[in-house]
Design goal:
By secondary structure, the protein is of the alpha/beta class. The chain has helices at about 45-55, 65-75, 85-95, 100-115, 135-145, 155-165, 170-175, 185-200, 210-215, 230-245; strands spanning about 35-40, 60-65, 125-130, 150-155, 220-225.
């Protein structure tokens, strides 16, 4: 007779258990939510639009590792702009705590804490969307959950560059450079995309920097194309969320 694994629903599987050595894991075992969706993708692919739609139109509660990082920055007086300051802080935190998944661990602990009250409730468990992943280890921490889905938003480089330029986000992020570069595709690749995909390695943060490129090769990710209108993106998300709702029952037990 096989093992009854139902008691591991929405918590770490036995092979991931380190409770005897890591008291921090008590915050994520068990997790009382209906299911968790991680949203990844390259910069300006449409991750924020995806999470916003999930929150505003589908009733998800949305969390982000970037929010966790900004909260830490505010608490210690680190400016939120220019963006590279936050990127450097994230790298340094992962290195200081010797934990490539440090920000993910804090975010998951917050999710657990805020949904602890749902245990034993007759109300449907909440659906959770999470963004802001910068390393494989961060995603792997969430993949250790039983009820989990990974959506990867996709758009080609030219389109992402046009979105960055038209929104003026690119101009704002590069305002600290002197002299000011041309806001063209080469600058986008060199100053914005390269740092996000491969990180900025220093002797202090080597092995702990941003590495989004590793996330993009995940075989388990469900692709969400965002090459056209928001309406088409939303239609795709409607289908995906509908399928998830059918797969994961609304009530626990």
């Amino acid at each position: 007779m096989g093992r009854d694994t139902r008691r591991y629903n929405l918590q770490f599987r036995p092979e991931f258990s380190r409770l005897h050595r890591d008291r921090d894991l008590r915050w994520v075992v068990p997790l009382s939510v209906r299911y968790v969706v991680a949203v990844t993708g390259e910069r300006f692919a449409g991750k924020s639009a995806t999470l916003a739609y999930m929150a505003e139109r589908k009733g998800f509660e949305v969390y982000s590792l970037a929010t966790t990082l900004r909260d830490i920055a505010v608490s210690i007086g680190i400016p939120l702009e220019p963006r590279y300051r936050l990127q450097d802080l994230g790298d340094e935190l992962r290195a200081y705590f010797d934990d490539p998944a440090y920000l993910a661990r804090l975010t998951l602990r917050r999710i657990h804490r805020e949904h602890l009250h749902q245990r034993g409730s007759v109300e449907p468990l909440r659906r959770i969307g999470v963004g802001g992943f910068k390393r494989e280890e961060e995603l792997q921490l969430f993949q250790s959950l039983e009820r989990f889905e990974h959506l990867q938003v996709e758009a080609d480089r030219q389109l992402r560059f046009e979105r960055a330029r038209e929104s003026e986000v690119m101009k704002r992020e590069l305002a600290h450079l002197d002299p000011q570069p041309e806001f063209d595709l080469d600058t986008f690749e060199r100053e914005i995309e390269r740092r996000d995909l491969g990180g900025k390695e220093t002797p202090w943060t080597e092995g702990y920097g941003q590495a989004v490129e590793g996330l993009l090769s995940s075989a388990e990710a469900k692709p969400i194309p965002n090459e056209s209108s928001l309406a088409q993106l939303y239609d795709c998300l409607d289908r995906e969320v509908g399928a998830l709702d059918k797969r994961f029952r609304a009530f626990s037990g």
